[in-house]
Amino acid sequence: MEEAVDPKIEEMWREVLTKGHRNRLAVLPGSHRCLTCFIPMEGLGGWMLGTFGNYRPSRKSPRLCNLCDELLPPGGAEIDLGVLFADVRGSTALGEQLGASRFASLLNRFYGVATSVVIERRGLVDKLVGDEVMAVFLPNTNANYAEVAVDAGVELLRRLGYGRGREPLLPVGVGVQAGPAYAGKIGSSGVNDFTVLGDTVNTAARLQAQAGAGELLMGEAVYRSVAGRYPDLEQRELDLKGKEGLFQARVLRLE
């Protein structure tokens, strides 16, 4: 039986996800403030909140506090946002070739680069799974979330060595999509986690699956947000699972 949605909780989540929410504790002195509720996370105020209030950086991003992630009630809201997936190509063969320890070391470097790029752009690292990274860009910290998601993907490829005239660290492909998705704490009352769900997320994942090493694939709507910076990108028609007809994508290639 489907659970009834509490409209007050849904509206609270929509406010947090699209505009942020200024916490009354934001008046405390300190530095390195949470991007969405503005409480101090360092300095005197940060020390007081960490010591007496159990506040700390979120697991999703050190630029957010756990109040804006773990301590909000289960629930969420449908909003427009940006999603990025990045994946190592041929990881099974690469793991066999390098051995477990060396391959794990390479993946950790990949995770480290991806995490830094996302956090620098006020995004959230949603998942690190196997050889894949999923990141989310919300309107509460990035009004131009689609453009920022593309920028993050390009910078990730650059830091891995693409477009710099040298051998890349790893063969990585990226997919970016933006649009409506359900964002919030998903799961049961006892076990839940912040994530995003919906067609926008699925499309980003499927674009990434068809991106070659050094390629970033994006939908036409996302491309419109960056067309001034990347004019006349290659168009590619893709047969994406769950989509009727061919999906029109743009290809940004760093070689």
Features:
255 residues, alpha+beta, Alpha-Beta Plaits, 2 domains, eight-stranded mixed beta sheet, two-stranded antiparallel ribbon, 34% helix
| Overall CATH architecture of the largest domain | 2-Layer Sandwich
CATH topology group of the largest domain? Alpha-Beta Plaits
> Major sheet, described briefly?
8 strands, mixed
The number of domains: 2
CATH class of the largest domain: Alpha Beta
What's the number of helices? 7
Unreliable residue runs: none
Separation of termini?
Answer: 51 Å
The SSE order reads HEEHEHHEEHEEHEHEE
- Broad shape: globular
| Cα-based radius of gyration, to the nearest Å | 19 Å
Characterise this structure.
The chain is an alpha+beta fold and 255 residues long. It has two domains: 7-73, no CATH class; 77-253, Nucleotide cyclase, GGDEF domain (Alpha-Beta Plaits). Helices cover 34% and strands 28% of the residues. The strands form two sheets. Strands 3, 4, 5, 6, 7, 8, 9 and 10 form an eight-stranded mixed sheet that branches.
